[in-house]
Amino acid sequence: MTKLRPDLQIIADNITPGSRVLDIGCGDGALMAALRDEKGCDARGLEIDPVNVASAVGKGLSVVQGDADTDLATYPDGSFDYAVLSQTLQTTHRPDVMLDQLLRIGQQAFVSFPNFAHWRVRSSLMFGGRMPVTRLIPQSWYDTPNIHHVTIDDFRALVQDGKYAQEGQWFLSGDKQTGRGMANLLAEHAVFLLRG
Amino acid sequence: MSEDTRYGLNRQVRLLGPLPLDSGTSLAPVEYAYETYGNLNADASNAILICHALTMDQYVASKHPLTGKPGWWTDMVGPGRPVDTDRHFVICANVIGSCLGSSGPATINPATDEPWGMDFPVLTIADMVRAQAMLLDHLGIERLHAVVGGSMGGMQAISWAALYPERVKSAVIIASAARHSAQNIAFHEVGRQAIMADPRWRGGAYYADDDPPSSGLAVARMAAHITYLSEAGLTEKFGRRLQDREAKTFGFDADFQVESYLRHQGISFVDRFDANSYLYITRAMDYFDLAEAHGGALANAFRGSQTRFCLISFDTDWLYPTSESRAIVHALNAAGAAVSFMELSSPFGHDSFLLENPEMNRIVDGFLKAGEGK
């Protein structure tokens, strides 16, 4: 078993065995395969990149090629225990609508995203005066899929506006979990568990 | 197993029936011409049924007796292929209504001892599938490891999953649809009218003097063939190039390469296909609307289904466009069924599914292998 990306590992560790999971933007299906093989989950995926879809289907996973912005509407209410959106929120056209969809389809939702308020991003903008290019935000401003950069505090405010319950939060820095203290400044990456 | 005369190439069987039909009538007996490849394992769990398209036949992976051409899907079916004849027991039967040995308008009506002609009952896709189920009973196969089909074969594969969910572990549906659109029906109607406008059609009673409506059938094939290709594919292959000449002739000869190509397609088709079969099978496809049979909601066809589904479409296929596959995927999602779907890129239009496509093979191979041993 290859090692999961750290945010995916947190999600995998915190999903109840045997649950039904929809992984939106599932990539090559690494999380889905881990959930199937180690937790007996019934995992389904949605992925836009054809090479990733082919790779996931080749692993025996049920993955549909499609666009999260348009195709989630076709999934019935409450059809999954968990909806997972990892490192994808910042690429969606309407992150607020996306959260609504996640918690319509899933009883709970895991959302992970790179934190745009991390000190390295801040200092890059402050001292460099250019749009930040970091390990987790590797593309230049003109060719990045990240059209809605978000900070941890922004996300918390969105969760509050949407009146969703926050049931878990995890923070990562340099691929290691860090504490909650000053997460908006110190965490490179955040994982939230929400309930509708 | 190899001594079992039910298995092997060029098999023929007469099933007593009767086969009840959607039209309210029935068909008896049911003649079947089919081929099997590979060996059925001890618990009969490695069987894969290949469903063929409108004008294809049972010769999926062996030489066609009339044209001498190799099987029509040897990239997909054969030793070491995704449908692996070293690993799977593969069945491909000539669909009823067709003309390569299974019951159809050209076979003998037992009531009259004459060819059925237009007295042959009008069939549906579901009738074809129920007939295939009878054949599987005869072959001793209770449950299919997979049913695989493209185009009309995909309509049969999805119908298999809807009609016999407990008999289908996995279904592969390529370049297909859950219903025939107005455009699909329109093109078929052009083909049928071309056949029936040929004076030699004679209400379908042309078998006695072996003088079939070849001109009409050739035109039907020419029109249909255009729908199997794409504009980009035609442009790339022929452009406006002239056929074996330096200049336009100011006549109605096949000046253009594309004309010559289509004429050749039409002429060679009539050597291997029966005009009445073309009428019956296109009719069955036009009548196909899986949602209609389930209260208008396609998802109802798959409620509680344990079948795994894999759908593939092609970006230049305008006959069965990606939107048709997506409609099936959405219904399967709504029903909670396990579904994979991918739109592949290929310049060859609807015909893409019959051509070599490594991506398609990789997906089908991975999908079928993942369903094994569970």
TrEMBL record, chain A:
Q: Which domain of life is it from?
A: Bacteria
Name the Pfam families for this protein. Answer: MetW
Q: Which NCBIfam families match?
A: metW (TIGR02081)
This chain belongs to the protein called Methionine biosynthesis protein MetW
Q: Which organism is it from?
A: Parasphingorhabdus flavimaris
Quote the gene name from the UniProt entry: metW
From TrEMBL, chain B:
Keyword Cytoplasm listed: yes
Where do the AB hydrolase-1 domain residues begin and end? 47-354
Q: Which GO terms describe its molecular function?
A: homoserine O-acetyltransferase activity
The record's active-site residues are: S151 (nucleophile), D317, H350
The family database entries (Pfam families) matched by this protein are listed as:
Abhydrolase_1
Q: What family does the database annotate?
A: Belongs to the AB hydrolase superfamily. MetX family.
Q: What does this protein do?
A: Transfers an acetyl group from acetyl-CoA to L-homoserine, forming acetyl-L-homoserine.
The identity of this protein, by name, is: Homoserine O-acetyltransferase
- Native organism is Parasphingorhabdus flavimaris
Q: What is the lineage of its organism?
A: Bacteria, Pseudomonadati, Pseudomonadota, Alphaproteobacteria, Sphingomonadales
